[in-house]
Design goal:
This protein is mainly α. Strands 1-3-2 form a 3-stranded antiparallel beta sheet, with helices on one face. It has a 3-stranded mixed beta sheet with strand order 6-7-8, covered by helices on one side. A two-stranded antiparallel sheet has the order 4-5. The longest helix is centred in the first third of the chain and has 133 residues. The chain is elongated. The chain starts with a helix and ends in a 9-residue tail after the last strand.
């Protein structure tokens, strides 16, 4: 505006100018100012609206970032919860193993107690025999003295004849005692040598304890996966059970599915197939059949490799491929929680060690021990016991008659024709009964104790019955008013007979019948 005034002033000095021109200049200047002001205000409004948009975009981006952080936090929490559940399952399994070890130690202490009782009874019998021998010697001395007193009245020939007969009787008695002592000493030497050989073989073989295998647990990444496994109207779970032959148990346990089946091979196929389906994410009847077929092929390859590893571990040569395949199938078989393949390898090692101690061929014993349970790997289409089926397969695949007989006779179904069959029977027994080999489930353990106590309580005159020392001993308390000492002895014998006929139990059971009378008075 200052320049406009200068211009107007200059014009007024140079030449006269009309008021209309001045007014036009002023109006133009004001209009320019208004236009500049309007443009400035418009730019400010646009800048303000752009700032509001930027703030809204930033707010939305912050909300998206917060949601992503929340989802990551939830995923991490779920992962940690699943890890905690797996750790809890592992710890529960470890606690179960500890309980089995404690039960095994308890049974071992029970056997030691039984051995001490047997040793005490043996010492008592020996002491009684010594007392009886001492009394017999005293009686013999008195008889001899009386006889000598009678001989003093006889003639020389009669005395010689009587002395000769006496010496012959004494020699016969001494020879009889000497023969009995020699036989007893020989039997003790044989037992000691047998124990030494077995202990030496068992100490050379380090075996791991077996776990109780009854079902298979599969962990799921999310809880939503259970619904996908079940499928619409249960079609997926039905297709899976039909393809694998197992039962899927889906309960409220978080992110866990239980696979149940009596056939461990089917259970392993189902486990591998289900884990593949969960990892893939596509669960429908067609993919189920595909993954089950793939799992079956993997299990077949695994069993073949397991059989070859067992053969290589024992160093057995020239074994037919069909027998190797059957050995590999034992990897998924269990007998009272003891793995059948590990048991066969252990029997092979034990049989070869004992054969080496006895100066026999360890390779034959090792071969027979490894193959003794091969019949358990044969499919159910064949009838007969696993010992008979295994012997037939071994014979069909070129095994020697000694090995075939050892396989067939290891459960005494046929007569043993060689000492190698006896070695396999011995090694099989040692591997099965060693501590930790075949763990007994807590349910069957409690049921056995309960049956033992009920059997004792069912007898007339029994007041109380307690099964102690892990079922190795039962103590029976009878009512003294109803049961005499002679009847108490009969109850012990009858209970022993009924236990042998009606119950199945490991080792031995000691029966103690207690008849106690107490009389008390109070003096006032």
């Amino acid at each position: 505006m200052g320049s406009a005034y200068i211009f107007v002033a200059a014009q007024s000095q140079s030449q006269p100018m009309g008021w209309s021109l001045i007014l036009d200049l002023l109006i133009g200047t004001g209009a320019g100012f208004l236009i500049a002001w309007a443009l400035t205000r418009h730019s400010r409004r646009i800048t303000r609206e752009h700032g509001v948009e930027l703030i809204e975009v930033a707010r939305r981006e912050a909300a998206v970032a917060a949601e992503e952080m929340k989802q990551r936090a939830e995923a991490e929490i779920a992962s940690r919860r699943a890890e905690a559940n797996r750790d809890l399952d592992r710890r529960s399994i470890e606690v179960d193993l500890k309980l089995r070890e404690m039960r095994s130690h308890e049974e071992f202490l029970g056997r030691l107690d039984l051995q001490l009782d047997q040793r005490r009874e043996q010492l008592n019998r020996e002491a009684a025999a010594l007392r009886q021998a001492r009394d017999a010697m005293r009686t013999m001395a008195r008889t001899l003295r009386q006889r000598l007193e009678g001989l003093s009245k006889l003639e020389g020939a009669d005395i010689q004849k009587a002395l000769r007969e006496e010496v012959l009787r004494e020699c016969e008695d001494e020879l009889r005692v000497l023969r009995r002592e020699t036989l007893a000493r020989s039997e003790q030497d044989l037992q000691a040598e047998a124990k030494r050989i077995l202990i030496a073989a068992m100490q050379r073989l380090a075996s791991k304890p077996n776990n109780d295998i009854t079902a298979t647990i599969v962990h799921l990444p999310t809880e939503e996966m259970k619904g996908r496994i079940i499928g619409r109207e249960g079609r997926n779970i039905k297709a899976f059970e039909a393809a694998t032959g197992v039962t899927l148990l889906i309960d409220e346990s978080p992110q866990l599915v239980l696979i149940s089946s009596f056939d461990p091979v089917r259970r392993e196929v189902a486990r591998a197939a289900l884990e593949g389906l969960v990892k893939d994410g596509r669960i429908h009847p067609a993919s189920i059949e595909e993954f089950v077929k793939r799992a079956q092929d993997e299990i077949d390859l695994t069993t073949q490799q397991a059989g070859e590893e067992a053969v290589q571990k024992l160093g057995v040569n020239g074994l037919h491929p069909e027998l190797v395949r059957l050995l590999g199938r034992l990897k998924y078989r269990f007998s009272y929680s003891q793995n059948a393949l590990d048991h066969s390898i252990e029997v092979g090692f034990l049989a070869s060690m004992v054969a080496s101690e006895l100066g026999l061929d360890p390779s034959i014993a090792k071969r027979a021990g490894l193959l003794h349970d091969v019949g358990k790997g044969v499919e159910s289409d064949y009838e007969g016991s696993h010992a008979h089926i295994g012997a037939e397969f071994a014979k069909r695949n070129g095994e020697s008659p000694v090995v075939v007989n050892a396989i067939a006779a290891h459960h005494a179904e046929v007569n043993a024709e060689s000492i190698y069959a006896g070695l396999v029977i011995l090694a099989d027994t040692v591997s099965a009964v060693r501590p930790g080999a075949r763990a007994e489930s807590m349910t069957s353990y409690l049921q056995r104790l309960e049956r033992l106590e009920k059997l004792a309580m069912s007898m007339e005159g029994v007041h109380l019955a307690y099964a102690i020392q892990a079922g190795r001993e039962i103590r029976v308390v009878v009512a003294p008013q109803q049961v005499s000492d002679e009847r108490a002895r009969e109850i012990a014998k009858e209970l022993r007979r009924r236990i042998e006929e009606e119950l199945q139990y490991p080792s031995t059971i000691k029966i103690t019948v207690i008849r106690e009378s107490r009389f008390s008075e109070t003096a006032t």
